[in-house]
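We give the entry.
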Amino acid sequence: MTEPVIITRTERLVLRNWLEEDRNLFREINRDQKVMEFFPFRRSHAECDILFDRNRTMIAETGLGFYALADRGTNEAMGFCGLAPVDLPGVLSDGSIEIGWRLATRFWGKGYVTEAARQLITHARETLEQSEIYAFAVHDNHRSIAVMQRLGMVHLDGRDFDHPKVPDTHPQLKRHVLYHISL
């Protein structure tokens, strides 16, 4: 097994770059109906692989991306939690950073995402010298919104938006809430 590039750690978790042995988990979370409930599509096997490789390269080159969220004891990947540049012109300014997550359902309900995201907020402030982080989700995605609130993020009233990358064929997924935290 290749030694992973570690971004940061918590008591139970490690946030690291993706390893080849994580590829199947990445495919799983991007194709799972429950995990992807608030996304308008499920990625094909090939699309997952392209995104996996692109994400690994971005993390290696910039230190930003959606990092593998793994068990600290076993190094088993469970999903991702990361910090990435936002591409939402007209919603957020260039250079804005978002925090995001996705976790295989068998790992839900154990506080992993909140624990990882808290550590990444500290990492963003202390190591990346960021002054603010954003998060957004479909307005009905109560699980993700609850994580944002547990992290101390604040809903930006009047800044909710229709996501420009969600097709009109999925109107129930267009409206997104926008949250923010100053670091």
